[in-house]
Write a structure and sequence with these properties.
Elements: H1 6-15, E1 20-25, H2 30-42, E2 45-51, H3 53-62, E3 70-73, H4 77-89, E4 95-98, H5 103-110, E5 124-130, E6 138-141, H6 151-168, E7 174-178, H7 189-202, E8 210-215, H8 217-221, H9 223-228, E9 241-243, H10 247-260, E10 264-270, E11 276-277, H11 285-298
Parallel strand pairs: 1-2, 1-4, 2-3, 4-11, 6-9, 7-8, 7-9
Antiparallel strand pairs: 5-6, 5-10
């Protein structure tokens, strides 16, 4: 199966027979409360709210929310993040959501080797995008966690994405390892590593998937351009995942899609014991809901 739109992801999450539970760390702000209320109202997931009980209660009243949430008292962002991770480790929630705190504050207890929720794998970010010009959802990884990933880290990033897509119901996720050119050039490390990743996938080391690299963006996204340039790639114009060489490529590509190409997206961090939703305060309510829906569908991938 393949998802054509992010609304399909949302609909699938709503339709699940067993509702999931999320924990929101430092849920003292209106954004967190609105998100928890809307998610519960739509039947996507229930929420545990961690933070200052008075501030959370005030926000619930101010926003006219009559929902009964479990509220756990915490008075600093660091304490809230640690408590949220404890709840995940104890199996009391299915995924983690960043509230009113910095991303670094949220991730610090997550990666703690003694008390965190790591799996021994790297953690990477999936940006699942809906574009008017593409016939299905297309994902960028990793544009949020690794600045300059090594070859081994890139392989782990691909494995994370492949596992996530299997959890979403894809039988053969198709991965394009992006570079500026589609031939191996020893002077361009990205091309060398892209070919090594393709060969690793061919040996079955990255899970059930199809990987092609190095490959330029235009060839990856257009079968017509691939044919014109006589590029031998049977899935050109039909890739599911774009592996970017560094954080700058992923960040610029994702923002250009959103700002200049009318795209929408849902982002989630994978590789820990549960998905982690780290949305910006500038994200729209729809973006946040779709990210939560994606986390719901991925919430069992490492259990």
């Amino acid at each position: 199966m393949e998802f054509k739109t992010l609304d399909e992801v949302l609909e699938r999450a709503i339709a699940l027979p067993q509702k999931r539970k999320m924990v929101i760390a430092n849920a003292n702000d209106s954004h967190s409360i609105e998100l928890a209320a809307e998610t519960k109202k739509m039947g996507i997931a229930d929420a545990i709210l961690i933070g200052d009980p008075d501030k959370i209660s005030d926000q619930l009243k101010e926003n006219g929310q009559g929902f009964d949430f479990e509220i756990l008292p915490s008075y600093t962002p660091e304490e809230s993040a640690g408590m949220a991770v404890d709840i995940i480790r104890e199996g009391k929630a299915d995924f983690l959501v960043k509230g009113m705190l910095e991303t670094s504050q949220m991730l610090r207890p997550v990666v703690n080797k003694e008390t965190g929720i790591g799996t021994g794998r790297v953690m990477s970010h999936l940006s699942v995008n809906e574009l008017p010009s593409y016939h299905k959802l297309i994902t960028i990884t990793d544009g949020g966690m690794f600045t300059y990933p090594t070859l081994d880290q890139k392989k782990e990033i691909v494995k994370n994405a492949v596992d996530a897509f299997h959890a979403l119901g894809y039988e053969l996720p198709k991965v394009a390892c992006l570079a500026a050119v589609e031939v191996v050039n020893p002077k361009m490390l990205e091309t060398v590593e892209a070919r090594e990743i393709e060969e690793s996938a061919n040996r079955g080391e990255l899970g059930t998937c199809y990987v092609k690299g190095p490959i330029s963006y235009d060839i990856a996204m257009s079968a017509e351009i691939a044919a014109y340039k006589k590029f031998d790639g049977k899935h050109c114009g039909d890739f599911d995942i774009l592996l970017v060489p560094n954080i700058h490529t992923g960040n610029i590509l994702g923002k250009s899609w959103a700002i200049s190409a009318g795209g929408t997206f849902a982002g989630v961090v994978v590789g820990a014991k549960v998905p982690i939703v780290i949305t910006s305060r500038a994200s729209s309510s729809q973006e946040k809901l779709r990210a939560l829906a994606l986390a719901v569908l991925l919430s069992g991938m490492y259990r």
